[in-house]
Design brief:
globular; seven-stranded parallel β-sheet; 14% strand; Rossmann fold; 328 residues; alpha/beta; three-stranded mixed β-sheet; 10 strands
């Protein structure tokens, strides 16, 4: 009988693709959902997965969730649509939820846990040079989201050091794009959705190191399976792509704005536009990270970013999450 893998946050964007990858490789998969109301939707989308109710904010359900599992892939974590009123709205759920999963896994004799972190735990305060897994964000120079990812990952490594009986590996993805699986667009693909939806006079000059969610799912499986992945973190992201470049890729198929907006105009818009206010935080920053370690240790590969951008757009159109766009 194949090994049983627990994937936390089964209704999530990343988790859905991870579950599909695991099922396709012959694993038995159990997923957690915050409430029974979500279970029916997830079961219809991902036939073959066993679903259990467990919320990262409470202890109930986690012992049952990890029972019998050889592996746990902890993908669930809050991702903000905007700036929270207080940073603890992100930090406490991220840190406490990660420790809750690890404690339950250790008590149940789980062999390995793979935690989904972020390059946000690597680049804060370290901009302007090529970053690797040896780098850590300076929490004194991070926004709430980056601080939550950094502190949650630090907590995971501290726990693993105190519990050598459990193996730990960490995945640090960049901006996650790629096709959505349901009529629900998460924050990570919102930039592409906004371009397709129209109404933007141009494109802010933002730069992000991106990764396709399907390639990210493979990376999670490889970190779970590869003996040498234990006690390692893996950056999963390609070369930085600017939003104007991303818009030009979309323009091959859809009618979208491609003119780069001057930074001063984005800052001016931020006075009245919450979306622009979020964008301002990233103006002038270029994410430069190396995925060489994942390529070398895990034999991991990434598809061309243009394929990821267009597949994201096609899925948003297919699920009618943007008005029917005009062809290019």
């Amino acid at each position: 009988m194949s090994d049983l893998v627990l994937v936390t946050g089964a209704s999530g964007y990343v988790a859905g693709h991870v579950i599909q990858e695991l099922l396709g490789q012959g694993y038995r998969v159990r997923g957690t959902v915050r409430s029974a109301a979500r279970a029916a939707d997830v079961a219809a989308l991902l036939p073959g997965v066993e679903l259990v109710e467990a919320d990262l904010g409470a202890d109930a359900g986690w012992d049952a969730a990890v029972t019998g599992c050889r592996y746990v892939l902890h993908t669930a974590s809050p991702f903000p649509a905007g700036v929270p009123e207080h940073e603890d709205e992100l930090i406490r759920p991220a840190v406490d939820g990660t420790l809750r999963v690890l404690r339950a896994a250790a008590a149940a004799g789980v062999e390995r846990v793979v935690v989904t972190s972020s390059i946000a735990a690597i680049q804060g305060g370290n901009e302007g040079r090529l970053l690797t897994e040896a780098d850590w964000s300076d929490t004194a120079r991070c926004d709430a989201y980056a601080k939550s990812k950094t502190l949650a990952e630090r907590a995971a490594w501290d726990f693993a050091a105190e519990h050598p009986e459990i193996e730990l590996a960490v995945i640090n993805p960049g901006m996650i794009i790629g096709p959505i699986l349901r009529a629900e667009a998460g924050t990570s693909v919102d930039g592409i959705r906004a371009l397709l939806a129209g109404g933007m006079p141009g494109v802010p000059r933002l730069n992000f190191a991106a990764v396709d969610v399907r390639d990210l799912a493979v990376a999670h499986r490889l970190a779970m399976e590869t003996p040498g992945a234990v006690n390692n973190r893996y950056i999963c992201a390609g070369a930085a792509i600017s939003f104007p470049e991303l818009a030009r890729i979309l323009a091959q198929r859809y009618r979208v704005p491609t003119r780069a907006l001057p930074d001063w105009l984005v800052r001016l818009s931020a006075l009245v536009n919450p979306d622009a206010r979020t964008a301002v935080r990233y103006l002038g920053r270029k994410e430069t990270v190396s995925a060489d370690k994942a390529r070398h240790d895990l034999n991991w590969t990434m598809r061309p970013v243009a394929d990821s951008v267009l597949d994201t757009a096609d899925s948003l159109v297919r699920f009618a999450l943007v008005p029917a766009p005009q062809p290019a």
